[in-house]
């Protein structure tokens, strides 16, 4: 839906990939609505257990986002995702992939299921 605005910047460090990302919805939602946040480097998914999301003064492992009903992601805020790397990437250009899936709690089907909006974005980084 908003893929061209999702991924603001991407940069590589020796031990991590850092992404500045935006919410893929036009209204603010609790962090618990972020149901999917996947990062890949050159088509290889990075381990979500080594991935954190930083928003303002809060830094959380991606696996804990679903428990964050009280913390909200405003549409005007950019979050920083830090995905740990087991091995530093080789020098050169690399492709970064982002998949974000956000549950929209007020868009509910007749069966009671909330809509989940999934968007993808790509960027290139050099090292």
Description:
This protein is mainly beta and 127 residues long. The protein has a single domain, classed as Immunoglobulin-like, CATH 2.60.40. It is 3% helix and 55% strand. It is built from one helix and eleven strands; from the N terminus they run αβββββββββββ. The protein has one helix at 3-6, and strands at residues 7-12, 16-21, 29-30, 34-41, 44-45, 51-55, 58-61, 72-73, 79-84, 93-108, 114-126. It has a five-stranded antiparallel β-sheet. The chain is elongated, with a radius of gyration of 15 Å.
Summarize the structure.
By secondary structure, this protein is mainly β. It has one helix and eleven strands, in the order αβββββββββββ.
What class do helices, strands and sheet pairing give? mainly beta
Roughly how many Å is the radius of gyration? 15 Å
Could you tell me the CATH topology label: Immunoglobulin-like
Q: How are helices and strands ordered from N to C?
A: HEEEEEEEEEEE
Helix content: under 10%
Number of DSSP helices?
1
Overall pLDDT level: 93
Largest sheet: 5 strands, antiparallel
- Kindly give the count of domains: 1
Tally of DSSP β-strands: 11
- Strand neighbour order, sheet with most strands: 1-2-9-6-7
Portion in beta strands: over 45%
Which stretches are poorly predicted, pLDDT < 50 over at least 5 residues? none
C-alpha termini separation = 30 Å
CATH architecture name: Sandwich
The 3D shape can be described as elongated
Name the CATH class.
Mainly Beta
């Amino acid at each position: 839906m908003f893929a061209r605005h999702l991924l603001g910047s991407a940069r590589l460090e020796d031990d991590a990939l850092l992404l500045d990302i935006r919410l893929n919805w036009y209204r603010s939602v609790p962090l618990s609505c972020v149901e999917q946040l996947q990062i890949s480097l050159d088509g290889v998914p990075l381990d979500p257990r080594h991935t954190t999301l930083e928003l303002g003064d809060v830094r959380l492992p991606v696996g804990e986002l679903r428990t964050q009903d009280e913390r909200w992601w405003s549409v005007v805020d950019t979050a920083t995702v830090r995905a740990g790397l087991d091995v530093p990437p080789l020098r050169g250009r690399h492709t970064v992939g982002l998949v974000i899936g956000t549950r929209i709690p007020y868009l509910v089907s007749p069966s009671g299921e909330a809509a989940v909006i999934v968007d993808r974005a790509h960027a290139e980084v050099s090292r």
